[in-house]
Specification:
The complex is a heterodimer. By secondary structure, chain A is of the alpha+beta class. Chain A has two domains: about 1-50 and about 255-405, no CATH class; about 55-250, no CATH class. Chain A contains 15 helices and twelve strands. Chain A has helices at about 1-10, 15-50, 75-85, 120-125, 150-155, 190-195, 200-210, 230-240, 250, 255-290, 295-300, 305-340, 350-355, 370-395, 400-405; strands spanning about 55-60, 90-105, 110-115, 130-135, 145-150, 165-170, 175-185, 195-200, 215-220, 245, 345, 360-365. A six-stranded mixed β-barrel of chain A has the order 2-3-8-5-7-6, surrounded by four helices. In chain A, strands 11-12 form a two-stranded antiparallel sheet. The radius of gyration of chain A is 31 Å and the shape is elongated. The two termini of chain A are about 30 Å apart. By secondary structure, chain B is an alpha/beta fold. Chain B has a single domain, classed as 3-Layer(aba) Sandwich (Rossmann fold), CATH 3.40.50. In chain B, the strands form two sheets. In chain B, strands 6-7-8-3-9-10 form a six-stranded mixed beta sheet, with helices on both faces. A four-stranded antiparallel beta sheet of chain B has the order 2-1-4-5, with helices on one face. In chain B, helix 4 crosses helix 5 and helix 5 (about 150-165) packs parallel to helix 6. Classes of the chains: A alpha+beta, B alpha/beta. The interface between A and B is medium-sized, with 24 and 29 residues.
């Protein structure tokens, strides 16, 4: 009965209901979309940071992170691979060997990192192949074919087909040098990475660097990317304390911190939006409820208890809030879905975006039904909370005061 | 055997002082004592500002007296919490206001059934009772109309039906005919008198219209907040 009466009030006070629903709808749509946008940019940061090269899970020698020298390499890559690939949830394992070398062409010499990779497996664990800008990507049986970052190529003034030499130290501390031919040039958008990285097929790299069955680290691709941390723990327990297994949140602690900071600012902004919405809805409800004070006085005079008046007004708020969050949620979700498929492009903003770890000027929003549902629930609660004070205040009136209210 | 007449409503030494500001006190009622028995049809009359409305509001628990007690059917109303007073108004007291005060979003039928539904009566019982009372008051054909679609006289009859339908012990009507023409006013009082006789409900109403006052079986006159006359037929 109270619900039916509340519904009748909502329908009868059409203009007030429409304005309240509009306020709630706009607020919900804003919250859902801004939240999806924040999550989307974070996911983009993670994707850029993790998928371009570092990978979701890294396996290194136990002390390699503290002291990255050839004493702390992975010394039996085949055995580790056999053990890791056997673990449930592991999609792929691939070893890498990184070495700091000097690249030289003519009178130009530039320091950088030469890495031996398994080109076929790298297609799945990183975006090196997708970052091809010119020429061709590597193949497993390539010999002295080099895949080089565009900024490094620019500094050395080489293009596809050009020759360059490198000198460095092999895994056995021998002198290593070779003549390489540029097969492909890549551009990830991560400036530092593009300016200092070059890759060789590991089969050939092992021959000139004496690194057969050795690796500076191995990359594990989980079947479920969201369970990287748990899988890292399982792998660590399986392969034992001689090795260190870290998920992307550990290997990229700086990125995690910057994301947390960004989230913090995002939540502060959302909190300010919440406070504004809260007070706007509260003031509007206060005015709307006081405009009906005489009606409430009549209800009280003929026997409606304060608790029943409270219930009727709360039902009204719930009905309006329910409609608002669903309409606003669907609108916000529609925008989130659209910009998830068609990322927003910020032309000319590449440099600024690089500072935030975003390699592209296109940022998609996230479309996650659970998050959208959470935001809708939060907004529903907020709308209800914002009407509590007006309802409590109006209920404090004695029936006779309310009846005489003009 | 002679039936024992019980004092259904006791108004004991009721005074009401309004204090618009700290230094000013306006007496609205001054030591009113009155006993009303079950089934009486009482008019409270007096000039404007004599305290008629204040007395009805205090009897109905809508306003609090500065001093004195109201005892309704053996229950002391003075000092009860608002929640308890609301329950008593819902179950035992019907109100008819000068300005009708129907709930604007409800139809006439829904207005009549509102209190009965608050009492927890079934839909069918509410329907049957509202129809019966509406027929007695001649508004059965208006039940599906909203208040703004009704004339003043029709609205007031719906208000009377709303007050009477939940079978209260007492109906309080504050100048129910003030906004009606003399013909409608007389007809309304006749209907209230009929309900008083047929339903046995005690009715106390206020008025300063001599034609309406003449229809009551007991007349209480207030002047400057004091009870000056109490005449039974």
């Amino acid at each position: 009965m109270l619900f039916q009466f509340a519904l009748r009030n909502v329908l009868a006070h059409g203009k007030r209901s429409v304005v309240t629903i509009l306020l709630g709808t706009i607020s919900t749509a804003l919250l859902v979309f801004s939240s999806a946008w924040m999550d989307g940019s974070h996911q983009q940061m993670i994707k850029n940071a993790v998928e371009i090269y570092p990978g979701y899970i890294q396996i290194t020698g136990a002390e390699f992170r503290q002291s990255p020298s050839f004493e702390h390499l992975l010394f039996d890559v085949d055995k580790i691979q056999a053990e890791v690939i056997d673990i449930a949830g592991v999609a792929l394992f691939t070893p890498r060997f990184e070495a700091f070398v000097l690249f030289s062409v003519g009178d130009k010499t530039v320091g950088g990192m030469l890495t031996g990779i398994n080109p076929e497996k790298e297609r799945r664990v990183s975006r090196l192949c997708a970052a091809l800008k010119d020429g061709e990507y590597l193949e497993n049986n390539d010999n002295n074919q080099l895949y080089i970052g565009n900024e490094l190529a620019r500094r050395l003034q080489v293009k596809v087909g050009d020759e360059l030499v490198f000198i460095g130290t092999g895994a056995d501390y021998s002198f290593a040098a070779d003549r390489l031919i540029v097969k492909g040039i890549f551009q990830t958008g991560l400036f530092e990475f593009d300016a200092g990285s070059a890759f060789l097929a590991k089969s050939y790299f092992d021959r000139i660097m004496a690194s057969k069955n050795l690796a500076t680290h191995g990359i594990v691709l989980p079947e479920n990317l969201n369970r990287s941390a748990q899988l890292a723990g399982v792998i660590g327990r399986r392969i034992g304390p001689k090795y260190q297994v870290a998920d992307w949140q550990q290997t990229m602690a700086g990125l995690v911190k910057s994301m947390q900071l960004d989230s913090c600012f995002g939540y502060i902004t959302l909190a300010i939006i919440f406070i504004v919405i809260f007070f706007v809805v509260m003031i509007y409800t206060l005015l709307a409820v006081f405009a009906r004070l005489k009606e409430i006085g009549i209800m009280r005079a003929i026997g409606t208890t304060p608790r029943q008046v409270f219930a009727i007004l709360l039902w009204e708020s719930s009905i309006l809030g329910f409609i608002s969050v669903w309409v606003g949620g669907l609108i916000g979700a529609a925008f989130a879905w659209y910009f998830c498929i068609h990322p927003l492009v910020f032309s000319g903003m590449e440099e600024q975006f690089k500072q935030y770890g975003l390699a592209a000027s296109a940022i998609p929003s996230a479309f996650e039904p659970l998050t959208i549902g959470r935001d809708m629930a939060v907004m529903f609660l907020l709308l209800l909370l914002s009407t509590l004070y007006p309802i409590i205040k109006v209920n404090r009136y004695q029936p006779i005061e309310a009846l005489h209210h003009v | 055997m002679t039936p024992v007449m019980t004092e259904f409503l006791q108004i004991r030494q009721i005074s009401k002082l309004y204090q618009p500001d700290k230094e000013v006190e306006v007496p609205a009622l001054d030591n009113i004592n009155l006993s009303i028995e079950k089934g009486e049809f009482v008019v409270i009359s007096g000039p404007s500002g004599s305290g008629k409305t204040t007395l009805l509001n205090i009897i109905g628990g809508l306003d609090l007296p500065t001093e004195g007690q109201i005892i309704l059917d053996g229950k002391l109303l003075t000092g009860l919490a608002e929640r308890e007073l609301a329950g008593i108004r819902r179950d035992h007291i019907g109100f008819v206001f000068q300005a009708y005060n129907l709930l604007p979003v409800l139809t006439a039928r829904e207005n009549i059934e509102y209190v009965m539904k608050l009492q927890g009566r079934s839909r069918e019982k509410c329907r049957a009772r509202s129809l019966m009372v509406a027929e007695k008051l001649g508004i059965a054909s208006l039940l599906d109309k909203l208040p703004h679609q009704l004339s003043g006289g029709q609205q007031q009859r719906v208000a009377v039906a709303r007050a009477v339908a939940p079978t209260p012990k007492l109906v309080l009507a504050d100048e129910p005919t003030a906004n009606l023409d003399s013909k409608s006013a007389a007809a309304l009082i006749d209907m209230m008198e009929k309900l008083n006789r047929e339903e046995g409900v005690t009715i106390i109403f206020s008025s300063h219209d001599p034609l309406v006052i003449a229809k009551a079986r007991r007349s209480v006159v207030l002047k400057d907040g004091k009870l000056v006359t109490d005449i039974c037929e």
